[in-house]
Design a protein that fits this description.
about 270 residues; alpha+beta; 2 domains; 7-stranded mixed beta sheet; 6-stranded mixed beta sheet; about 25% strand; binds copper (II) ion
């Protein structure tokens, strides 16, 4: 079960405004197909959304699309990009006085199903040197030369720095992989009160407060949008898997609004094969 992702986009869609999501998911068959692949997450989502306003969605509107498959995709990014990230806004009834989407999503997904690790395991994973990797600590760079790349990433690790990624004990290291490599990244959210995720993107606009305005997953499957807060069951661990098919300069970042700008980002380089 360790390989199951919290949110595994089935396909990389182009820019998805809410209206586009609604249009793209207009058929019942499409919605059901996407939802079936995320069944336990969807069941959890429905139970949580149903708790808002006694099940009355969208600030009083009866029923509403947010509790259905379309809303599930809009919220989680299942099959695409989370629609709310385009505006950095969650519905008012979810905000409840807060202005921090990361904190709201952290609470919302705290009890979500999916793999967990203990705090001790998270510490170990954050320091683990990936098999076959060359770690250059002075250059803050981790280089892979094999076709299979596996690494663990801890978001906001215990002991800080806050709002960073720790990989092999380094802070936001540059990752270098050969073209065509199959990349598996296990992402752990170690932050006690904020959601985090990881997206590998081609965008270079690191300073954007809303990375999803400019950033999309660079490869099919190169996103875990967000993991909720830890509970007594442990810290959430999501796995993203993709093939780094095209050489180039990419970045990994946390797509939660504001986080990449606060430092949750690093370089991801795909080198041409020889
Ligand atoms: Cu984050």
């Amino acid at each position: 079960m360790r390989s199951r992702t919290l949110v595994r986009p089935a396909a990389v869609a182009a820019s998805l405004a809410v209206a586009t999501v609604l249009a793209a998911c207009g058929t019942v068959a499409t919605v059901h197909r996407h939802v079936a692949a995320h069944n336990t997450q969807y069941t959890y989502y429905r139970s949580m959304m149903g708790a808002y306003n006694g099940g009355s969605m969208m600030d009083g509107a009866r029923g509403g699309w947010m509790i259905g498959g379309v809303g599930f995709r809009w919220m989680t990014g299942a099959g695409g990009i989370p629609g709310w990230m385009h505006g950095g806004r969650l519905p008012g009834y979810m905000m409840r006085g807060s202005t921090d989407p990361g904190k709201i999503m952290g609470r919302f997904w705290a009890n979500a199903p999916g793999p967990r690790v203990s705090p001790a395991q998270a510490t170990s994973l954050g320091d683990r040197v990936p098999v076959g990797a060359h770690v250059n600590r002075a250059a803050d760079t981790i280089t892979f030369t094999s076709a299979s790349v596996r690494l663990s990433v801890v978001a906001s690790p215990a002991g800080g720095p806050d709002e960073t990624f720790r990989i092999a004990g380094l802070v936001n290291p540059k990752l270098v992989v050969p073209a065509g490599a199959r990349v598996t990244m296990e992402v752990v959210n170690a932050d006690p009160d904020t959601a985090h995720g990881l997206v590998v993107t081609g965008s270079q606009g690191a300073s954007s407060d809303l990375p999803m305005m400019t950033a999309q997953p660079a490869f099919v499957g190169s996103a875990v949008w967000f993991l909720g807060n830890p509970t007594s069951a442990g810290m959430h661990a999501g796995t993203l898997t993709f093939t780094a098919i095209t050489p180039g300069t990419y970045r990994y970042l946390c797509a939660v609004p504001g986080h990449a700008r606060q430092g949750m980002t690093g370089a991801f380089i795909v080198t041409a094969s020889h």
